[in-house]
Fold:
Amino acid sequence: MEVPTEMAESIEGFMATAMDPEDIADQVVEAIIERRCYILPHVEEDDSIRGRTEYVLARGAPFPIPL
Structure:
């Protein structure tokens, strides 16, 4: 099965910036020890998460999240 070029490029871009699995594992263990429910590894995404949450609370219509 051939992967469409656009999808392959998107996956390659994601993988190029992906966190190391060891770093993620460390964050998961730390969150468990601290009894945190949410594990959000990228602080750069905080504004995006905040905006989406505020939109939901404002009863905004659902919209697709771009990949």
Observations:
- The mean pLDDT is 87.
- Helices lie at 5-17, 21-33, 46-57.
- The chain has one domain: 19-67.
